[in-house]
């Protein structure tokens, strides 16, 4: 038995098959959990129904299996969890932390933006809805205080939510619950102790810590692994037309993922099978050695000449 309980998770959005960037996040989370003797869960974040692609969730699970990333227990599916999110929103409404907002996207178009390009909500509906306005979404109030947290890769960080984010959305105008709310409700429900995910979500963490504090939920330990970009420096995503993970040449993709995570396997493992490769990394995994800098996916190196994993 492991003295320190560890429950990690991988939480893909099934908007398409996994690409190299999502493989890096999955491998890092799997390794961190296995190296700690912990559990590793999978959660399908199909909250944003219009963005999900039919069949993508199954494809993702098959891809994880193909890469040797076995998960524990049943897969939690966010589209079946509306009652839990509604209960959390009710709690925020009852405490006065959440308020209705009538602002449209175009009304906010000129609001200042933060370094991530997100609108900093100017607080238009914070005290009351403007006369005659119709509530569309729900926002949660943020305090003018620094939220401090420790990231296992990026170190000690802080963000002033009032200055850099503003009151943020917990239920969208289209009636869908927002990612920020669902993720904290589900991380708590699944007993997640350690979150390992892509660095594109680093600056979502203070919002999530704020919600965990308001809802009395435990705050997991966070680690944000390097973002993977294409040669043009864009984050790999469906929008930037990132290719699905290769079905052949998996060894090369896995080796490249480990290199991006600062754990390139030694030369004597060239030619090793997936299982041997993963066993070696589990034994050598040091999350503090994972670099903070983004890595460039190099598709030219992806297929290798060795037999497939
Ligand atoms: N579903 C999110 C994504 O695919 C990840 C959420 C998380 O790990 O907190 O980007």
CATH architecture of the largest domain: 3-Layer(aba) Sandwich
What is the count of helical runs?
A: 8
Mean pLDDT: 92
CATH class of the largest domain: Alpha Beta
Helix content: 25-40%
Any idea how many domains?
2
Give the termini distance in whole angstroms. Answer: 31 Å
The helix/strand class is alpha/beta
Question: What gyration radius follows from the Cα positions, in whole Å?
Answer: 20 Å
CATH topology of the largest domain: Rossmann fold
Main β-sheet, spatial strand arrangement: 1-2-3
Element-by-element helix/strand order: EHEHEHEEEEHEHEHEEHHE
Low-pLDDT segments, ≥5 res:
302-309
Largest sheet, if any? 3 strands, parallel
Going by CATH, the homologous superfamily of the largest domain would be HUPs
Shape: elongated
> How large a portion of the residues is in β-strands, by DSSP E?
15-25%
Give the bound compounds: glutamic acid
Q: Based on DSSP secondary structure assignment, what is the total number of beta strands?
A: 12
């Amino acid at each position: 038995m492991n003295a320190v309980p560890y429950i990690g998770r991988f939480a893909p959005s099934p908007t398409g098959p996994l690409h190299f960037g999502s493989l890096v996040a999955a491998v890092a989370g799997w390794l961190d959990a296995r190296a700690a003797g912990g559990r590793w869960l999978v959660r399908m974040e199909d909250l944003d129904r219009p963005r999900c692609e039919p069949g993508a969730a199954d494809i993702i699970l098959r891809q994880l299996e193909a890469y040797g990333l076995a998960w524990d227990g049943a897969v939690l599916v966010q589209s079946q969890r509306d009652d839990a999110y509604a209960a959390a929103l009710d709690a925020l409404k009852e405490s006065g932390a959440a308020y209705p907002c009538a602002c449209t996207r175009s009304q906010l178009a000129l609001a200042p933006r933060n370094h991530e390009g997100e609108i900093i909500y100017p607080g238009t509906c914070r005290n009351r809805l403007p006369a005659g306005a119709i509530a569309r979404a729900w926002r949660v109030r943020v305090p003018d205080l620094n939220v401090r947290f420790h990231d296992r890769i990026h170190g000690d960080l802080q963000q002033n939510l009032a200055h850099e984010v503003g009151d943020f959305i917990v239920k969208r105008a289209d009636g869908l619950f927002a990612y920020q709310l669902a993720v904290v409700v589900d991380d708590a429900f699944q007993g997640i102790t350690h979150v390992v995910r892509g660095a594109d979500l680093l600056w979502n963490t203070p919002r999530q810590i704020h919600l965990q504090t308001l809802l009395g939920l435990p705050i997991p330990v966070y680690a944000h692994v390097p973002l993977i970009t294409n040669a043009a420096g864009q984050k790999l995503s469906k929008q930037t037309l990132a290719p699905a993970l290769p079905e052949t040449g998996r060894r090369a993709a896995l080796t490249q993922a480990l290199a991006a995570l600062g754990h390139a396997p030694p030369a004597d493992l060239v030619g090793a099978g997936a299982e041997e490769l993963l066993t070696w990394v589990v034994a050598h995994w040091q999350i503090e050695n994972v670099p903070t800098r983004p890595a460039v996916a190099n598709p030219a190196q992806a297929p290798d000449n060795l037999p497939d994993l």
